[in-house]
Amino acid sequence: MSERLVWLDSLRGFAIFTVVLGHCIDGYLGANIFPSYNVLLKIAYDFIYSFHMPLFFCISGFAFYLSKTYKKYKIKFWDIVLLYLFWSVFQWCFKIVLASHVNKPLNFDDLLKIFYVPMVPYWYLYVLACLYLVFSKIGVPKIKLSLLCITGILGFIIKHYSIDLGIISTSVYYMYFFALGGHLCTMNLHNRIQNKNFIICVAICIVNCILYLYKVNFTTSILSINSIIVASAGSIVCFYIFYNWKIVYESNILKMFGVYSLQIYVIHSFITAGSRIIFKMLEIINLPLYLLVGMIFGIFIPIIIGKYCAQNEFLNLPFAPIKGLKKVGVIKNL
Q1: Main-chain dihedrals φ then ψ at residue 333, nearest 5 degrees
Q2: What does the alpha-carbon distance between residue 42 and residue 250 come to, in Å, rounded to a whole number?
Q3: Are the C-beta atoms of 243 and 7 separated by less than 8 Å?
Q4: What is the pLDDT of residue 241?
């Protein structure tokens, strides 16, 4: 594996780590298990959610253009669609069976709506499929600054005016971050981010943390711009660190997280929710223990499952559906 792919895997591993941590904290807040820690948990939640999904879309945009996926988008597009449908239905079944224990119970109508109202947490797959389709169809081999600015303006409009078009609004907003990743890749900027740019981005993040802690209220327009700037700065900081700091990108644990990021993403919510339910039934109320068990099990059980399933094309269908279907002869030409 080349050095370039190593740092990208490690960055993806860090991103999926923040996703699992964010969902753990979100689950505790939703269930109100630790009311005395709600303020601290909310601070941690807001910090993680200020950048972690934009970072994931930046990584996706970078990988999209790095691999030139727009030339073979049909396979990737349908792969993501099948992943989304399978895991959404699986999630629905899980929540139906454990309806009395989950934070957000579902009904049959929710299953019918998955074609236009994505089920949490699989909205990312839905949006990613849309972005793959859009950026493949427009046929832009390079994301220049002009196109990046256009997507940024559209994202600001969606954010500022709170335009609610469902998943369309979400897709338009995250299109900017997908384009930002593509811009870093196609313009080869990820390896030319200077120290001063890195320091400025870090300063932006620190200043916003201070303003948040002091509960400084922004106007709607400033808040919209600020959220995009903070997410962009946070993503650029992560790209800089993981590309330049050898001690970080050579982390074997983060590389492993990155390699199995898909498995962790689609499975972890069942593990974290299940551990939360079991702890609650056993009346074990201990935040550090909850976090430790949720994070360890939520990350390593999917990795173990992923490694086991990778040994058999049929078992690996939930993670690589197109490849598996081709292998068994269900799909021949795509």
Answers
A1: -120, 110
A2: 32
A3: yes
A4: 96
Q: Which two tokens stand for residue 158?
A: 């969606």
Q: Please, are residues 270 and 94 in contact by the beta-carbon 8 Å criterion?
A: yes
Give the Cα separation of 312 and 315 in Å (integer): 5
Q: How far apart are CA 37 and CA 280, in angstroms?
A: 16
- Cis ω before 141 (30° cut-off from 0): no
27-55 per-position pLDDT tens digit: 888 888 889 999 999 999 999 999 999 99
**Token pair listed for 2:** 């080349």
- In the numeric block, which tokens belong to residue 185? 């890749």
pLDDT higher than threshold 50 for residue 3: no
The token pair at 48 is 């993680």
Cβ proximity of 230 and 50 under 8 Å: yes
User: Distance between CA 73 and CA 48 in Å, rounded?
Assistant: 31
Q: Alpha-carbon distance 238 to 130, whole Å?
A: 25
- In sequence order, the 6+-apart residues with CB closer than 8 A to the CB of 115 are none
Q: Report how far residue 289's alpha carbon sits from residue 176's, in angstroms, rounded to the nearest whole number.
A: 38
List the structure tokens of 318.
Answer: 């939930």
Determine phi and psi for 295, rounding to 5 degrees: -70, -45
Quote the tokens at residue 98: 């454990």
Average pLDDT in the chain: 91
pLDDT digits (tens, 9 = 90+) for 158-184: 999 989 999 999 999 999 999 999 999
In angstroms, the CA 191 to CA 239 distance is: 9
Q: Phi, psi (5° rounding) for residue 188?
A: 55, 40
Confirm if 267 and 302 have CB atoms less than 8 A apart: yes
Residue with tokens 């660190």: 241
Cα separations (Å) of 129 from 125, 172, 190, 198, 263? 6, 13, 24, 31, 17
Reported as a single tens digit per residue, the pLDDT across 259-276 is 999 999 999 999 998 888
DSSP codes, 266-290: HHHHHHHHHHHHHHHHTT---HHHH
Q: How far apart are CA 168 and CA 286, in angstroms?
A: 40
